[in-house]
Amino acid sequence: MRVLGVDPGVTRCGIGVVDGAPGRPLTLVYVDVARTPPDAPAGERLLAQADAIEAAIAQHRPDVVAVERVFSQHNVRTVMGTAQVAGLAMVAATRVGIPVVLHTPSEVKAAVTGSGSADKAQVGAMVTRLLRLAEMPKPADAADALALAICHVWRGSAQSRLATAVQAARAHR
């Protein structure tokens, strides 16, 4: 399974692609952080992030796109920008027929580190270890995008099997 993970942000959007399957070694395919200048107009910044996400999808042809589910933060401006870029990722994937899944930050942390309250350094260290990298992906947005992809490789296939089993059970009623 090839998963493209998106850690949405207007200034920095992490995009990471991982190949893998449960019980098998994971492979880094691609990682980047799309950046926009904070003083650029909002529309231009969103367009740049949309272009970066669309280009990664076109180049790497993932089976699924995993996006961080936006959660409530104290800074409304940050939440709004994050939600806008998350929406761009969902539209880009859906436009080309690729399924989209959302994972909360605590789900990602728990999947990758074993603790839903892990800090960014712990997530980065585990991503580095799991992908057998020489150094930690930087900035944290890069590691977070890869963590999203890893989370879905491990959790998504189990969730898909459960959903298939539930549908099959309903069909036999």
Question: Can you tell me about this structure?
Answer:
There is one protein chain. With 173 residues, the protein is of the alpha/beta class. The protein has one domain: Nucleotidyltransferase, domain 5 (2-Layer Sandwich), CATH 3.30.420.10. It contains 5 helices and 5 strands. It has helices at 42-60, 76-95, 105-113, 120-130, 140-171; strands at residues 2-7, 12-19, 27-35, 64-68, 100-103. It has a 5-stranded mixed sheet, with helices on both faces. Helix 3 (105-113) packs across helix 5 (140-171). Mean pLDDT is 91; it is low at 162-166.
Descriptive labels:
Nucleotidyltransferase, domain 5, globular, 18% strand, 173 residues
Largest sheet: 5 strands, mixed
| Helix/strand order, N-terminal first | EEEHEHEHHH
Query: What's the name of the CATH homologous superfamily?
Result: Ribonuclease H-like superfamily/Ribonuclease H
Distance between the termini: 32 Å
- Number of domains in the coordinates? 1
Report mean pLDDT, rounded to a whole number.
91
Helix fraction by DSSP (H/I, runs of at least 4): 40-55%
Rg of Cα set = 16 Å
In what order do the strands lie side by side in the largest sheet?
3-2-1-4-5
CATH topology: Nucleotidyltransferase, domain 5
Q: Say how many strands there are.
A: 5
- List the uncertain runs: 162-166
Please tell me what the overall shape is: globular
> Beta-sheet strand percentage?
15-25%
Return the structural class: alpha/beta
List the helices and strands and how they pair.
Layout: E1 2-7, E2 12-19, E3 27-35, H1 42-60, E4 64-68, H2 76-95, E5 100-103, H3 105-113, H4 120-130, H5 140-171
Parallel strand pairs: 1-4, 4-5
Antiparallel strand pairs: 1-2, 2-3
